[in-house]
Amino acid sequence: MTAAGVIDRSGLDALLATLGADGYTTVGPTVRDGVIVYDTIASTDDLPIGWTDEQAPGRYRLVSRDDDRLFGYVVGPHSWKRFLYPARSVVWAGSRAEVGWEDLPPPESPTYAFFGVRGCELAAIRIQDDVFLGDGRPADPTYGERRRRAFIVAVDCIEPGELCFCTSMDTGPAAGDGYDLALTELGDGRFLVAVGSEDGAAVLGRLTVAEPTSQDADHRRLLLESAEHAMAPSLDTNGLRDLLVANVEHPHWERVAERCLGCTNCTVVCPTCFCSTMEDELSLDGVTAQRTRLWDSCFTIDFAYIHGGSMRPSRAARYRQWLTHKLATWVDQFGSYGCVGCGRCITWCPVGIDLRSEVQAIRASDVRLGAPLPAPGVRT
Length: 380
Prior knowledge:
seven-stranded mixed beta sheet; globular
């Protein structure tokens, strides 16, 4: 990232005002109900100024900072997925005609500006771009239109949390590809700004921007190096795909299932999970109908229901499906991992299951090294 300028907090407010004037609904981090969520914001006053978050397996707390940093926290339960791929969306609506049905026009897609997108979250958006818009697959119109309209203001993540492991997944802490503008909070009330698109350059050109110095660039580099060192690699991805595929009958899946509640929290907060189901509705008078797509989860027993029964009747089978898809068969399907190292699934698991520990347990007793298999007839 090469900085194009430096702005202060008033410059950020000018940026937000410019995006609003251009018709964007600006969404960014804000405090609500004791957590940092993504919601509409109008100025930097709406940001979680002076707050940080403490996260551990199954635990999240907001804590006051001793400074006024605007981005001194990591990620909460929300991801940008909820705006690009909403939890409930109408994929078709129609009205009865003389012969058959007549399509009704779809609702107009909102125009969002995302403010404060971390490197891991940018990676998640790139992954979902491939899922919904990738070459050789039919483009999803709901996601595609929202994504086309979106303006992204990213931010370097210079204070990683306890559960962050983006360095293991090569998704952070620096903002990667896919932003229009990117910010680095220098800690002295100033922000480096980088341009990532023509739209970003046009918006920045309407702001008052100071020239960055070589010291500013050095400062950013040191901040990011410090963040990287704070995240010792905690998920070994060496041969990870082959490890999990070879251990689908490993007894450890049953041990995880003894703790797993099957609550679906991990898939709801995950920024890349995309499982869905369809719901058809017909008006009482039979005149109109619509098909609605809803978020679903591979942890629900009905998700794998087919031909009179579920293919994954146990929690062990469902947890195995989730983890092996995220870190193994996703590679076969899309050419990348489905995990970006944000740590949300660990924080918001009520019993604190940490996928890194579960992978390590399987690696330590890899069946290819002679680990015992489940007894014959044990259903996983």
